Amino acid sequence: MKKVFILGSTGSIGVNCLSVIENLSEDFEVVGLTVNSNTELLHEQVKKYNPKFVVVKDESASQNIKDKLPTECELLTSEKGLLKASSELDYDIFVGAMVGFAGLAPTIEAVKRGKRIALANKETLVVAGELVTNLCRENGSEILPVDSEHSAIYQCLIGENLNEVEKLVLTASGGPFWDKDKSFFENATVEEALDHPNWKMGSKITIDSATMINKGLEVIEAHWLFGLTVKKIDVVIHPQSIIHSMVQFVDGSIKAQLGLPDMKLPIQYALTFPKRVENNFGRTNLPSIGSLTFFEPDLNKFECLKLAFDALTEGGAAPCILNAANEVAVSKFLQKEIRFSHIPLLIKKALNSVENIFSQDLATIFECDRKTREYVQGLI
Ligand code: NAD
Ligand code: MG
């Protein structure tokens, strides 16, 4: 039995992960769950999956579940509890399904213990890719990407030599606005931006898809996961989200991975790799899809995507600044305090103003994240 610890179990990836494990119940068991504050759903999950421990990050919310847990289920709270669970409690697979920078510290604890990391939380690699991948090498920890693009590339690279890769091609749905004029962004509403055509996801990543910074974060994630320079990573808009990404080799051959836009498949692959396991998920019916189309992304329109390429090229803590500014901007947009078109402006200002530091120690990364948040809050 493989013991699975899911961080962010009440989110879109977390809930999908639990349903994947239900189908794999002969080989996988849920031992730990963490949430920010949704104790109602957590309580349902505890009744169903019977974990040995849970962490509720929000201490006041933890009061709601304290007396409802079975005696054998340990309750931890706050960020300290999250770190303690990651660094001390018993599990084999760490599923990083929480959103944002908050995923970094617990992931590092799991990496230091040499665990398998099924990583959805791309922000971890964006802000500290060098540190995390070095720690993985030192501790024999392996990251299995859950992000569908990176899972696709991982699958395309099986049996191949990285030296023979000419480039990676990340596909992007383009989000709800890919064919709108830039002038539309001025008055784009939260509801419109949350209305993603293909994927049902948490609100932060859905806004990231609308600005296309999500693809930029994924370019940075791919750079660290596969060790390729920014020049060897392309983005192409593919509105049907059937091809999840591609690898082009030095002989011109291209391998692609296809499937329905359903995160259960990359989640299952990250858990069962190197095995493939039968399931009852939907199957892709190509004739019913009819055609697959591709477009060049417009970097003038999707400035956030360009800023992400620039930040990766600049290096150092620039991706951390980009990420922190984006997290603040997205949260303010969701609260209707700024316009959609303000998001790239705030990120650009942060990249130009917050000092970039070329050192990858954890304290520096935390400091850079804090300073950037403070700076962007100040602008708003
Ligand atoms: P979500 O908002 O649906 O869920 C986030 C989860 O994290 C919730 O369980 C929440 O309780 C928990 N959480 C939030 N803030 C926390 C904090 N400070 N401390 C502890 N827990 C916290 O998000 P999601 O869509 O499931 O995305 C999760 C991650 O996976 C993100 O990094 C996202 O970019 C990535 N991802 C998601 C998808 C998708 O289809 N949803 C696809 C690819 C990658
Ligand atoms: Mg993705």
Structure summarized in a few sentences:
The protein is α/β, with parallel strands linked by helices. It has helices spanning 12-23, 39-49, 59-66, 78-88, 104-112, 123-139, 148-157, 190-193, 203-211, 213-226, 264-272, 286-289, 303-314, 318-334, 342-353, 362-379; strands at residues 2-7, 28-35, 53-56, 74-77, 93-96, 116-119, 142-145, 165-172, 233-237, 243-249, 254-258.
Provide key terms for this protein:
380 residues, 16 helices, 11 strands, single chain, four-stranded mixed sheet, binds magnesium ion, Rna Polymerase Sigma Factor, Chain: A, 47% helix, binds nicotinamide-adenine-dinucleotide, alpha/beta, Rossmann fold, seven-stranded parallel sheet, 3 domains
CATH superfamily of the largest domain: NAD(P)-binding Rossmann-like Domain
Write out the strand line-up for the largest beta sheet, numbering strands in chain order: 4-3-2-1-5-6-7
Task: Give the rounded overall mean pLDDT.
Answer: 97
Number of domains: 3
Any idea of the CATH topology of the largest domain?
Answer: Rossmann fold
CATH architecture grouping of the largest domain: 3-Layer(aba) Sandwich
**How many whole angstroms does the radius of gyration measure?**
20 Å
Bound molecules: nicotinamide-adenine-dinucleotide, magnesium ion
- The helix-and-strand class reads alpha/beta
Describe the sheet with the most strands.
Answer: 7 strands, parallel
Strand content: 15-25%
Net shape: globular
Total helices: the number is 16
- Helix-strand sequence: EHEHEHEHEHEHEHEHHHEEEHHHHHH
Query: Segments where pLDDT lies below 50 for 5+ residues?
Result: none
Question: For the terminal residues, how far apart are their CA atoms?
Answer: 50 Å
Which CATH first-tier class of the largest domain would you pick? Alpha Beta
- The overall strand count is 11
Helix content: 40-55%
